[in-house]
Amino acid sequence: MMIPVEISGAAAPPTPMATRVDGWTVLEYESVSSSNVVAAALPVWHAVRADIQTQGRGRFQRSWVSDRGGLWLSAVVPAGSTPEWKTLPLATGLAVCDALAGLGVNELRMRWPNDVLVRNRKLAGLLLDQFAPGRVVAGIGINVQNHPEASDQRLSGQTCRLAELLRTTPDLRELTSRVLWNLRRVIEVLATGSSGLDALLPRINQLWAGNRRVELDLDGRLEQGHFSGVDRAGRLGLADDHGATTFYDASQVRHLTEIEKNP
Ligand code: BTN
């Protein structure tokens, strides 16, 4: 679910370096507050990458550690009004996983709605903001050579980074280009409508890595059940012990805790 967001004090730092990559225009900055905020005013197929973010944003107004050496990227993509587009956040996760798999990262999986994990550690997070009708800013943070736990000790043991997973770590420009290439492909498929979703949805659902018992924090109310994947509106399916499934929109779920994985 994308929530319209108002921008305050969103002045971009001057004179970014602009490059063209696979149909995208990428503006590169040394430092920004949040690349999503800088990208808010840009047209579709533009992207912002920054070496550091001073106010990196995560879901639910959390902050996102954005130290040097990570990929902090925001891509402006079209957003249609047909139902398929509700899966855009999940399709973005698929594109990021495709890009990482293409580099040789193994054991990738998604934790609903927008965490990219290797085994149980978070490698990447996504934040989609809708600042204006018809376009969405897809914010993508990937730990590469950075050390997020050095900035926030609570992250210790929770995160991983590409430098630990690959023999050769890609540079940030190569990674940017791979992510944007995959994102554009996925969006082109989504834009074909219902048949595009038919192609994407099984691939998205495969990334959850099995039917898991989970607990949802529905803004204070806790609900347990089995995560049974996502539907065509991008909602999470939670099956109770009697087999009845309730669907929840991403905006309803403050947190999902994985309890166990079925064999
Ligand atoms: C999350 O897991 O809570 C989402 C994290 C999203 C972080 C990225 S980094 C690039 C973009 N700019 C931001 O301020 N946030 C996103």
Can you describe what's shown?
The chain is α+β, with helices and mostly antiparallel strands and 263 residues long. It has six helices and 14 strands. The strands form two sheets. Strands 1, 2, 3, 4, 5, 6, 7, 8 and 9 form a nine-stranded mixed beta sheet that branches. It has a five-stranded antiparallel beta sheet with strand order 13-12-11-10-14. Strand 10 (212-218) and strand 11 form a beta hairpin. It starts with a strand and ends with a strand. 40% of the residues are buried. Residues 1-7 have low confidence and may be disordered. Biotin (BTN) binds at residues 34-36, 53, 56-59, 62, 64, 66, 72-74, 114-115, 125-127, 139-141.
- The structure class reads alpha+beta
What is the general shape? globular
Bin the strand percentage. 25-35%
The molecules bound to the chains, other than polymers, are: biotin
Low-confidence blocks of residues:
1-7
Number of helices: 6
Distance between the termini: 31 Å
Total E-strand runs = 14
The chain-level mean pLDDT equals 91
Main sheet record: 9 strands, mixed
Order of helices and strands: EEEHEEHEEEEHHHHEEEEE
Rounded Rg: 18 Å
Helix content: 10-25%
